[in-house]
Structure formats: C-alpha cells, structure tokens
Design a protein that fits this description.
159 residues, globular, 7 helices, single chain, three-stranded parallel beta sheet, mainly alpha
C-alpha cells in the first residue's frame, strides 16, 4: 500500500527497491504472511529488487539459519556448491540483484562464482516453497501467492 501511494504521487519514480530477502521471508520482514508479493509488485512496476541478508535469518526468527536448512544443504551437496552460493543463485534466478558480502578472501571468491551455474526448476520450486513451509500451518496455505510444494494445505487443520 505504501509503495502504491508513492507511485501515485511521485513525479520521479523509484527505480529499485532494496529489501531483506530470505527463503523464509522473501521480499520483506513479513512477506510470507501477506496475500500479495512485494517482489512481484515491484517487478511488475519496473523496479529492480535488490536483496540483502539472503543468508541471514530475521533477528527475531526461530527458524534455522538459511545456510543450515536441510533443503538448501541437500541441493548444495548435490550440485557441488556451497549453501551460500545456492541461496544467492536462487535470488538471482528470481530476477533480483543481490548484495553478497564477505570479509574473507575465500568468501569473496565464492561470491564471484554465482554466474557459472543454474539451479534446476525443481530446486527453485523447493527453495521458493520454504516461505510456505515457514509460514503455513496444516490446512492453511500461506502465503497465498506461493506454491505449496510441501503439501501443508492438504493436511488436516491443526486443532
């Protein structure tokens, strides 16, 4: 709603939107709980979405760190990449610009090797589904815009 208001009155429209972006909350702090995707809205309005802290969980999060998520680790092991590379590549394939950072020489070199591989569609779907896995509950598909690849919506509702 705030972005729409800004676009309604701004004579010079923004050209990019910088947001925290993780597989648990892709696009904003509580994107997974929203009915609409900030990322999809921004891309539809010609904004470049810049994702930061892709490998870091929210400060108040009870989730695993994305680098330790078993789904991410399995994909990384299968394709011979680090979990960090998998997550940054996932964001790039979604159409985002990313801001990887490292103070270690090895980490900087690893961050530079994001453009010599692609994630398969099945892996992209599994990573996209982490938002629904982290926000959904049995019998309730959440967020509504994400594919329920893990089948939470088909489970009986929690009592």
């Amino acid at each position: 709603a705030q972005l729409e208001e800004l676009f309604d009155f701004a004579r010079v429209k923004p050209v990019y939107l910088q947001n925290k972006f993780s597989p648990y909350d892709p696009g904003s702090d509580h994107e997974a709980r929203n009915q609409h995707s900030v990322m999809e809205w921004a891309l539809a309005h010609g904004l470049t979405v810049v994702g930061y802290s892709i490998i870091k969980p929210a400060k108040t999060s009870y989730y695993l760190e994305p680098l330790q998520d078993p789904h991410v680790s399995e994909i990384a092991g299968r394709i011979g990449r680090s979990p960090s590379q998998v997550l940054h590549r996932w964001a790039l394939q979604l159409g985002l610009a990313v801001i990887p950072r490292s103070s270690r020489r090895e980490g900087i070199a690893e961050n530079a090797r994001l453009f010599d591989f692609l994630l398969e569609e099945a892996d992209m779907r599994l990573l996209n589904g982490l938002a629904s896995l982290s926000a959904g509950t049995p019998g309730r598909r959440c967020p509504a815009w994400a594919e329920d690849v893990y089948g939470l919506g088909a489970l009986p509702e929690a009592m």
